[in-house]
Fold:
Amino acid sequence: MHQFKSHLWSLKSIASSYLTLRRNHHQHDLNNVRLMASQLKTRSVVRFSGPDTIKFLQGLLSNDVRRFDESPGEKTLNPAMPNMPVITVPPMYAALLTPQGRFLYDLFLYMPTKPEEKLNKTRSGRGSNDGELELLADVDTQVLDEVVQTFKRYRLRAKVDIENIAQDFSCWQCYGINYSHESSAAEELDTASIGWGAGIDKSTMSASQGNDIRWQWFKDPRLDCLGYRGIFPSSSEPPLVEADKETDEKNYLLWRLEKGVAEGSTEIPKGEAIPLEYNLEGLNAISFDKGCYVGQELIARTHHRGVIRKRLLPLKFLDDKGKEQKVAPGSEILDASSGKKIGTVTTSLGCRGLGLLRLADALKKSSLLTILGQEDLKVEAVKPDWWPPEWF
Structure:
């Protein structure tokens, strides 16, 4: 089997190539970049532990957290390798909402591999078991303390501990490759294992055997095209990401903008955003059959009504000569032919952005979109490839 490591470019060279691409062609385009990794300093880690952890989060979050408590099935069983957990549970994307169904915080939930779910290093049996239930949450750094306090207010008598462990762990994203179209099934299987193929790559086996091997890369639970995501100890680099070779987190932001994916309580306005307008159901953040949770009534009613007139869309900003231009978040988007406001820019980086727009106007072929106060600037709304056809 062709080793995945042979596909791993020098991240420093990739970042340099990307900057050259931007300088020479004046384009923010990451589609030609094979692989990059970024430490997400905009994300921090919270730990939930205790016997009531699953029950506690199940009553609060938009996704079905009971999946972490299920017996392992075939999809979670891995080949028996000493560097690789025998059983892994994929991470989950979820949101905490207000009682009125508005967005508050998003979370990536992980269940660290338990010692009894790994072989011992002699391959003769499973490791020891401390028996404590634990979930780690990757949350927005800007609202970290607020997230912890909010969950503690909901705790009441539930037997669950909630801790800020941001000093001990870091969040990372590996991206820059269209996994759903370009990578083979074998590559994806190898990448999902610890160290991007620890069972195959001999050079990573010895290094990982000497460390705590509970930490690994997982497919991003939202979309395949977003790559891989993971939580790793802050004291060391993730597998196969060498020190000083990762690229700036802004490149990950740009990657998400091109895919039409918002993240965090700034890009998805806290206390204001309606989750379905920000496409959270398409990002696997919402379970419609899990039962009650905070804010569930509005989500269920909107979903079953089936009419969502506004959605978050990727945007490009160009002047009348086709040159890329910058636009500030909060700028109003107009249909130039009617003068009618059809939406707002929510996030931007250079000539790329996200906007919450009325679909009927934004995706009409005859629409000519512009920015209020910058009427010489053209706005191009792009329909993401991953959108399901029923959204139209």
About this structure: The longest strand covers residues 310-319. Confidence is low (pLDDT under 50) at residues 1-28, 119-129, 180-211. The two ends are 42 Å apart (CA to CA).
